[in-house]
Amino acid sequence: MLVYLELIIYNIFFSKTKDYTVFRGHGASVDQLCWNPRNPDQLATASGDKTVRIWDARTNKAAATVNTKGENINICWSPDGSTIAVGNKDDLVTFIDVKTHRSKAEEQFKFEVNEISKDRLQKSLDATSDARIQIADIRKLEWPVRTLSFSNDGKMLASASEDLVIDIAEVETGEKLHQITCDSPTFTVAWHPKRHLLAYACDDRRDRDAGIVRVFGFPSDT
């Protein structure tokens, strides 16, 4: 009965949303994005146009644009929200001061940098066989998983592959709550640190769609 009530709440939430809200400005595809852990109104994006943009989710506009030395493929906030680390295709990681919007340090790696992770405490997961099976059964995929993200309360999992959809499922039961249809494969998804808002960017190859970031979950006007 408890699970049933939770599903009703989620269905009401999704029925009152727009399909998505669009953030425009990048001149090339957005490969990765992440929310500021200390200021959840800020969203940072890494793009192949050699820039990092910091967006204000309240206005849907870029609050800052930082030029970098290469085509960016990954990005991460520091736990205190003061620094953004961004890595490019040449394996150069740049550390950006969020207050000044300028580079304060760089580190060149001799090997491929595929992911940057913030150093923070994580909630431990119960690694039982049943838990593994339950999580694995959330979504049956015929394509490789490109990206996934847990919601801030740990109750929902967003996952995307190359099949042009983003699935949002309940972690405890594996029940599908919503599906977002995309025109192209999804590069990255990220849940808001405090609210049920999902930011995502796709492999948009058409010029008019290049560099677009979308946020699903904003309340509709109706």
TrEMBL record:
One Gene Ontology biological process: mRNA export from nucleus
A Gene Ontology term for the protein's cellular component: THO complex part of transcription export complex
Domain Anaphase-promoting complex subunit 4-like WD40: 140-192
Pfam families the UniProt entry points to: ANAPC4_WD40, PD40, WD40
Annotated keywords: Repeat, WD repeat
WD repeats by residue range: 23-65
UniProt xrefs under SMART domains: WD40 (SM00320)
PROSITE patterns: WD_REPEATS_1, WD_REPEATS_2, WD_REPEATS_REGION
Assigned protein family: Belongs to the THOC3 family.
UniProt-recorded name of the protein: Anaphase-promoting complex subunit 4-like WD40 domain-containing protein
